[in-house]
Amino acid sequence: MRNYILYALGAGAMFILARDINLIAGFPQEASQGAIFKIIFFHVPMAITAMLCSFVALCASIAFLATKNFKYDAIAVAVTEVGLAFLAGNLITGSIWARIIWGVWWAWDVRLTSALVCWLLYAGYLMLRRAIEEPTQRATFAAAFSIFAFIDVPIVYLSIRLFRTQHPGPVFFSSNGSFPPDWSAAIFGPLGTMMAMMMLATIFTCVRLTQENFQRELDSLRRMAHAM
Amino acid sequence: MGAFFRQALTITIKDLKAEIRTKEAINASFAFAIVILVLFSFAFDPLEDTTRDMSGGLLWIVFAFAGVLVLNRSFARELPNDCLDALIAAPISGAALFLGKSVANYLLLLAVELVSLPVFGIFYNVHWTTQFWSLMLVLVLGTWGLTLIGTFCSALTVNIRLREVMLPMLTYPALVPVLMGSMQLTVSLMAGKPIGEETMPWLKLLAGFDIVFTAASLVLVEVVLVG
């Protein structure tokens, strides 16, 4: 049953993405930036998805520490990996955009740097998990570090903002933005790219969760075999 | 509450005694600090004005690298003879154990830094004494952030393989705000400028980071150490 829901979700995400790509290709080019501007339709949803993933990871980590239920540990690791992938996509699309508009692949601006530090922190989280053998200890330590990382990211952002920034300001939800409503709808609408990314993230997380459960089952069987 | 601090103090004194008798971490750390200072002198011309502009930044990289050596030993020292298990089984809270170890590391790190500073001043021809007390304030705040994150990660990584590799991997990204703030302040102080309107936000950031992470790690360390 669960698999069918996942397949349906996947088909839905594919459909929405295909529709959006078709729609976005039909939009006129942005006046000052040209075609490269359209990267925003994927760049921004990926960033928001990654942020949501790290928030879910925080909640799952707290839930694990409170309940010691390994279900939450599996959620935390699954969602962190997916979030890391989306953040990587965000960094890469942003880098391509920067090469065309700023003329450099990378600028040490506040959002770029904090996104990179965030990526490094969560990559450290995954490496920490790799290095610990004992499951209870692995889950506990990883949860503690995940909470630490989540607290750290806003401070990193704040600290880098004290430098001057060159990242283009937000064009959504602000009064000075001049983003046409049908373009906004292509991202945040019910059939926008945001929805497609969220569905993708959910599917990836569920698949990863299944793997994690199998892994735990395998580990316990192996331990049992060793004991015998 | 009084008992809590007395327990933490006992741990601090124990750690300092062990370190002063062997001097293994502090010697290695100080020697390493000098080695990095020498290496930096090949990367940049140490007597040029541009280098002096970023000398505060260099200094904190030295402190961060040398500091990890001390922090690495902090919990690893307790592994032989299962001392860590004994400490955890002792009738003190994990937070007291963590605080005690942090303070011990803090004092050791500060000692390494205070000895490195004059050496740095000589090697790089930097007049670091012009804003002496402000610089000490930055040192005190920045080092506490460094020690706190480092000791916490040291507790996380004590039992794992690749401990020496994992500790910097976890510590440095988390340290970005502390290092940035300390570097900005140190560069400006070494240029002879007192802490003013421009640098005050960094000082506040340092203090804020220290407060937030002291609270967070004291809460979290209980689960990490005791489980």
**Shape annotation of chain B:** globular
Termini separation of chain B (Å)?
Answer: 22 Å
Report the major sheet of chain A: none
Helix/strand/pairing category of chain A: mainly alpha
Summing up helix and strand content along with how strands pair, one would put the structural category of chain B as mainly alpha
On the 0 to 100 scale, the average pLDDT of chain B is: 87
Spatial extent as radius of gyration of chain A: 20 Å
Provide a descriptive summary of the structure in words:
The complex is a heterodimer of chains A (228) and B (227). Helices cover 78% and strands 0% of the residues of chain A. The radius of gyration of chain A is 20 Å and the shape is globular. Chain A has helices at 2-26, 40-67, 70-101, 110-131, 135-161, 181-188, 193-227. Chain A has one domain (2-25, 34-227). Chain B is built from 9 helices and no strands. The longest helix of chain B is centred in the middle third of the chain and has 31 residues, at 94-124. Classes of the chains: A mainly alpha (228), B mainly alpha (227). At the A-B interface, helix 4 and helix 5 of A face helix 7, helix 8 and helix 9 of B.
Topology:
The complex is a heterodimer of chains A (228) and B (227).
Chain A: H1 2-26, H2 40-67, H3 70-101, H4 110-131, H5 135-161, H6 181-188, H7 193-227
Chain B: H1 2-22, H2 24-43, H3 49-53, H4 55-76, H5 83-89, H6 94-124, H7 132-157, H8 163-190, H9 200-225
Helix pairs in contact in B: 1-6, 2-4, 2-6, 4-6, 4-7, 4-8, 6-7, 6-9, 7-8, 7-9, 8-9
Short précis:
The complex is a heterodimer of chains A (228) and B (227). Helix content of chain A is 78%, strand content 0%.
Essential attributes:
heterodimer; A: 228 residues; mainly alpha; globular; B: 227 residues; 9 helices
